[in-house]
């Protein structure tokens, strides 16, 4: 089989459409369709079924995917061997998916440091409040808030992080007393839009007895800015609080949550020395940055008390 046709096959399998694959490959959809037809003719099997929803893999196509990905990984390994060994700087483009809290408050500092050390590297941070599909190559690596239980993936725990209730002093001064968690239902709560919580680890308010959030967003940064505007009380990341110094923690002894970040990679990339080096630097940087920001947040709380 021709590698270039396999490359087109993988793009269609991941995008589930000729137009989506064409955008990734800089080819027009008609050309992509002809290349798929050529591959199917050479293989003597139908690899895709076309439907109103797009192109779905047939059983034969699904069996071809891991072999095509192995060829892709081998080609990437050959390119890495030619362009430089372990002592060379990282180069090329890497796309990293992350939840928006991590993307907004942790990754800018971490990625800046990595790119300072590797001037030839281009990093794209895709900040979306949802789970990334690495099989479709939406990203080369992804950071998640829970460990995936399915898929051909390699998973590494990065670090724990902490969250507490927070609010603006002006809101607390005008609102009813908030001395225990039992007082929370009397308050205006800021949180996630319930039907847009993409991971159970983000369902912070269930079990607290609070009403549905009066002001809600699927974005961590929007929620934090609502708290900064005095909109109410809500759960905030400790690592984000240094970016909102006007906020104060509320009932920290009564409610202290711990969650974790996980680094997720496609199983087929396990032998990529380039991605392994990037992942190593990323993991170290995220651990350091979470520790630094949380220590800064804790120091600010200590000064206020």
**How would a crystallographer describe the biggest sheet?**
9 strands, mixed
Mean pLDDT: 87
What is the domain tally?
3
Strand content: 15-25%
At the first level of CATH, the class of the largest domain is Alpha Beta
Rg to the nearest angstrom?
A: 23 Å
Please identify, by name, the CATH architecture of the largest domain. 3-Layer(aba) Sandwich
Specify the structural class.
alpha/beta
Q: CATH homologous superfamily name of the largest domain?
A: Periplasmic binding protein-like II
What is the third-level CATH name, the topology of the largest domain?
Answer: D-Maltodextrin-Binding Protein, domain 2
Task: Report helical residue fraction.
Answer: 40-55%
What is the string of SSEs from the N terminus onward?
HHHEEHEHHEEEHEEHEEEH
Oligomeric grouping of the chains = single chain
Large-scale geometry:
elongated
Tell me how many strands there are: 11
**Stretches where pLDDT falls below 50 for ≥5 residues?**
none
Number of helices: 9
Distance between the termini: 69 Å
Protein name: LysR family transcriptional regulator
Pfam families: HTH_1, LysR_substrate
Family: Belongs to the LysR transcriptional regulatory family.
Keywords: DNA-binding, Transcription, Transcription regulation
Give an overview in words:
The structure is a single chain. The relative contact order is 0.14. The protein has helices spanning 3-15, 18-25, 29-43, 59-83, 100-105, 107-117, 169-174, 220-228, 273-304, and strands spanning 48-51, 54-57, 92-98, 121-127, 141-144, 153-167, 189-191, 215-216, 233-237, 248-250, 257-266. The longest helix is centred in the last third of the chain and has 32 residues, at 273-304. The chain folds into three domains: 3-83, Arc Repressor Mutant, subunit A; 96-153 and 264-284, D-Maltodextrin-Binding Protein, domain 2; 160-259 and 296-304, 3-Layer(aba) Sandwich (D-Maltodextrin-Binding Protein, domain 2), CATH 3.40.190.10. By secondary structure, it is α/β, with parallel strands linked by helices. It holds the Pfam family HTH_1.
